[in-house]
Amino acid sequence: MGYSTDFEGSISVSPPLSREEIDFLNKFSESRRMNRKNGDYYVDGSDLFGNGSDKDIIDFNTPPAEQPGLWCQWVVNNDGEIEWDFQEKFYEAAAWMEYIVAHFIGEDPIAKQVDPTRFGFLQGHTCEGEIYASGEEADDLWKIEVRDNVVSRIEGHVSYDLHAVGASDESTEDTYDHKHETLERVQDTIRQMRSSFNGQREDNPSLDIRGETFEIVLRDLEESAGIR
């Protein structure tokens, strides 16, 4: 169960992240984010993914107050950019991006302010880029945009353009020309009917009821065909 979202794109970091920064960020994302006595930034829990029953854990199923969830799935790729780890069910992705920029890789990392001894290796960086998101629902489309360390979530939408299958702009123009030619032929036919009818009316000014009815029909045809 749960809901999965796919992400495409990456966020560049300048100047490049140091090896120590990369290792820390990836360990942070690989470890379950639990409320624990060792602090919000602790990444050295025991067992796989930090899931061991360590004595400092306060609540196994609750993240630290300022962290959006139990798992941050933003990692550093081989190019030194921030991207999705390609694991399913990544929740609060935009909030997590905002968190790691503010706390670890932004211009003045909060973690370094809080504990300069432990996090003196964090440098100031500028983050830029876009990551596109598509959820399981067809209309669940959005993107994360990072501009000069400011993170935004921008909603997308689905739209459809009406266009004949296999039709090109040229074929559309051909269809228009064909319809125009057909209308001209209809107009010519109605004009011929009008001319013939007017000639009969001159020969026989006293029209019977059928002639009056035909006059009404003929006027309707002329109006529909745009003949004035």
Q: How would you characterize this protein structure?
A:
The protein has 228 residues and is α+β, with helices and mostly antiparallel strands. It contains 5 helices and 8 strands. It folds into 2 domains: 5-155, no CATH class; 169-224, no CATH class. The strands form 3 sheets. Strands 1-6-7-8 form a 4-stranded antiparallel beta sheet, covered by helices on one side. A two-stranded antiparallel ribbon has the order 2-3. Strand 6 (126-135) and strand 7 (141-147) form a beta hairpin. The longest helix has 35 residues, at 169-203. The radius of gyration is 36 Å and the shape is rod-shaped.
List the helices and strands and how they pair.
Blueprint: E1 5-14, H1 19-30, E2 35-36, E3 57-59, E4 74-76, E5 82-84, H2 93-105, H3 110-114, E6 126-135, E7 141-147, E8 150-155, H4 169-203, H5 209-224
Antiparallel strand pairs: 1-6, 2-3, 4-5, 6-7, 7-8
Quick summary:
The chain is α+β, with helices and mostly antiparallel strands.
Strand count, sense and closure of the main sheet? 4 strands, antiparallel
Helical/strand content category? alpha+beta
Unreliable stretches covering 5 or more consecutive residues: none
N- to C-terminal distance: 68 Å
The helix fraction, in percent, is: 25-40%
Shape designation? rod-shaped
How many separate structural domains? 2
